[in-house]
């Protein structure tokens, strides 16, 4: 089918390529890329035959918000917007309502798979009405892995990004668990072959997983991870997962621990631990005059 | 090769069967099973040609300790004991030293794979001297999956059980992450198709894994998990992982959270939360006379 | 000075009484209490001499929002609203802006102390302009403990409720720490005199605190806390503290653990732990047919 | 009464001084201090009239073990050893049994209060037989605060150190909660007066406590804690508390989080977070070649 793809970066560009390989006609636009087929959003809309389907794959936050607002002005009744970025599920609902007033449909799509997706296929989780989802189904079917699976219509608008958010929260927990296990093996002084241990776990064990495959690959390239710092950013989804858990009174200690470990990894010096150090010094009864730690009591 | 297998339960019995399928001669003994080939440990030792290799696969703790002590008396110089149960790595070192005084070798083997291992193969992680490990190599090679992988010689005696322990700690963290994600999706009221979401994640996503396959299978059989209680035992490995982390000053918050969630799942009523409730009542300034909770302040 | 007090419940009523004891003229109004001096909000405004100072002490959320909205219509330029409930600091800023457009001042006041405050005095933390805070200073000075202290002008509008929120977050952490310590002493089987231990800690130790005094009092009344269930509500402040921590990328593991322990205390059955149980059953390779747990692997 | 004090450091020296102030006859010995009254342990034993009471107040671990072993040889039937250091409760039981075989009594005493104890008095928690505890009661009564309280006979041998360990675990949790609250206030950018906020909390609030007094004092001396690094050691008690919690299947998430935060504060670079960074790089599909972080997926 015909599809407009807005955003031709690492994700959107690869997805457009995979769709073209599968026989779809993709018209691409990106404000910052030479790869684009048209030079403006208006030109993209002109190029597509009504009723149009437009996939938005630009950075979350302002770029997505302004793109969708502009599309609201350019598109016509009967068209459909698929928001494939990492939007918050609450924003989906507001956007869908605005577009709905103009007769424009809205589907939110969470996309997993990273740059491996072009060849392996993507995991696609969508939210929206059955009718809107059905219209875009040929696109979803071409994005998922060839062997099938990889697609779910999770619920109404917002549900696609919600389950993608939860997916990423789980991902945080799994990555942290591997990290803790790695550190413990290294610290023990007992394990001579840490990379080989992870490699061996790829078959036959309970923890076998794609993340383990990636970790094994990373350790093959850099057996002591000496080219990396223990520093990790967090994207919005991890924070949103914890905030959603708090909103719904769901205890999420492992996922939250994973998020906090990332926060801590980015701190040069922890203000909280300065307080602990200050208190330990106070036990000693002397003025705090140096960067030192006196003891518990 | 010829091997004595002590313990013919869910694990040992399946392993013996897999080894026989691969052409090994296995002499099995189990104090409580009719499947045994000999009726006593002494008969097992008699039946094997020296130098013997004996695999111990009985419950951790006393049964393993007494079996190995008895073997120490029955075996001869040049024989080899493989301890395949879930022993603590510190116990391995003590046992290896005792046997070593008699010229008997010792290899500790962590085994992963559960009842699926008979057909899929097992993950095998061993600790011991290069010589001892090499002697038993044909057995290890037949236990791992047919497609290869699944084996590591992790280090000296104790290293096999240590990395199996860490494997299980990671497994705790992964299971907990899936659990938290499931609960959040259910609590949100936004996700109409929770089983389908997990099913879709099996292909193309970052969280694809054997545990996800199992969870998807469980949700297919019982979509709301209504036949289960939210109650989970813990085996020794989870506790040992946390205790090793504390010993080595390794922060392990996600794995520890997973262990504590299991502890909490088994409590009818939490004494700690009684204290919180008692304090909240005290803020109200009145005597604690009923099972009620008055407020923060 | 003259003050209007809106809300004469457990907090507002006691505060009004303390202020009267200290010589202030308090005109009280409460939609649901016979103790009120006037029958409507309009009558309260009429009764006060301009420029007026009105303290709002009604439940957080809608009651506070509608009361302040109504006051916005009734009050005049130069009047001052003090919001003393448990509002979210972001709501303070929105309200202050609306009132400011009409020339009405706004101070947010966090109040700690519970029912003990009437006799002991309250902890008061305020946010607002120096001028607005100064106008209400005689009221604050009478609310705090007679021995002094207990007051801080923490920053601009919102800062009062923000630091009260953090205060409650810390309170959660302290209560949880006492709870965990209590449970461990009971579980150990080694401590014959748990209430006496807490009682002894009230003097000379590092953990001496008002919360410990309250806990010791609770254990004197009910040495095994047998009249209580391990069940604790959470008020908004605990959740907001965690959400603010996530917003600001501040690791807050102890406070978050305390919040999650309260969430878990209110669950009959944990959906997350059903997933863990389901996975453990799957290791066994058999269908999930009963509420039972088969093992790790 | 007459007492031998072994160890005249920060704790033992101050305790000896307090006891002398209260009229006790203290004979002091310290291997490394000029303050000693006798030059050898044997001389100390000679100087005391039988039946003797000897208080051991030397560093935990080997120094305590060797001192008590030596006392076992020097003391006679009817004498009493009080172990006041930070020993593990399991060691107490082994030592008590050995001394008991020679007719020597044993009391384990946890001591809280730090250098403030000399003037404020100490918190004293003891384990042992009623008879042994009674004999040393005059010493305990002089060590606790003048206003009374501060003493508990918690149970049999080991119970004193066990409850002191739990006391310190709770202390970890309280310190961490204050630290997290401090960091959140600083990070918010909303609180102009963080030291003043803590100071104000010392009266009228729920979190008022000795630790808050100390923190307020530290912030008065160094309002931004700029003379300190966010680095905290941990003594054995915190680790033992977590290990005891794991042994007894007691969820202790807040205390454990506090311990782990200390571990993390001492790491230049976290190996676990290197794994997270490596995995994030792998999502990008390129070799790990720099200390950089590519994204989640």
From TrEMBL, chains A, B, C, D:
GO terms for biological process: D-gluconate metabolic process; organic acid catabolic process; pentose-phosphate shunt. SUPFAM superfamilies: 6-phosphogluconate dehydrogenase C-terminal domain-like, NAD(P)-binding Rossmann-fold domains. Residues 160-294 form the 6-phosphogluconate dehydrogenase C-terminal domain. Its EC number is 1.1.1.343, 1.1.1.44. Keywords: Gluconate utilization, Oxidoreductase. Belongs to the 6-phosphogluconate dehydrogenase family. This is 6-phosphogluconate dehydrogenase. It comes from Nocardiopsis sinuspersici. The lineage of its organism: Bacteria, Bacillati, Actinomycetota, Actinomycetes, Streptosporangiales.
């Amino acid at each position: 089918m015909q599809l407009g793809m807005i955003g031709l970066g690492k994700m959107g560009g690869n997805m457009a390529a995979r769709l073209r390989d599968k026989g779809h006609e993709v018209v691409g636009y990106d404000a910052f890329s030479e790869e684009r087929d048209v030079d403006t959003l208006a030109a993209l809309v002109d190029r597509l035959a009504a009723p149009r389907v437009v996939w938005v794959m630009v950075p979350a936050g302002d770029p997505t918000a302004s793109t969708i607002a502009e599309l609201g002005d350019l598109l016509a009744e009967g068209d459909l917007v698929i928001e494939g970025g990492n939007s918050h599920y609450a924003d989906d609902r507001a956007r869908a309502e605005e577009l709905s007033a103009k007769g424009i449909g809205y589907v939110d799509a969470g996309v997993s798979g990273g740059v491996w997706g072009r060849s392996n296929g993507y995991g696609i989780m969508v939210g929206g009405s059955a009718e809107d989802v059905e219209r875009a189904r040929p696109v979803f079917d071409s994005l998922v892995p060839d062997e099938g699976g990889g697609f779910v219509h999770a619920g109404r608008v917002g549900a696609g990004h919600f389950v993608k958010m939860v997916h990423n929260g789980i991902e945080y927990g799994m990555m942290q668990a591997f990290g803790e296990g790695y550190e413990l093996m290294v610290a023990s002084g007992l394990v001579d072959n840490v990379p080989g241990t992870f490699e061996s776990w790829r078959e036959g064990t309970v923890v076998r997983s794609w993340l383990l495959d990636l970790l094994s690959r990373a350790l093959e390239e850099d057996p002591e991870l000496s080219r990396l710092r223990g520093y990790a950013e967090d994207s919005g989804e991890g924070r949103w997962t914890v905030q959603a858990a708090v909103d719904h009174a769901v205890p999420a200690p492992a996922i939250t621990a994973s998020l906090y470990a990332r926060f801590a990894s980015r701190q040069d010096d922890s203000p909280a631990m300065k307080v602990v150090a200050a208190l330990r010094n106070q036990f000693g009864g002397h003025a705090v005059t140096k960067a030192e730690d006196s003891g518990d009591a």
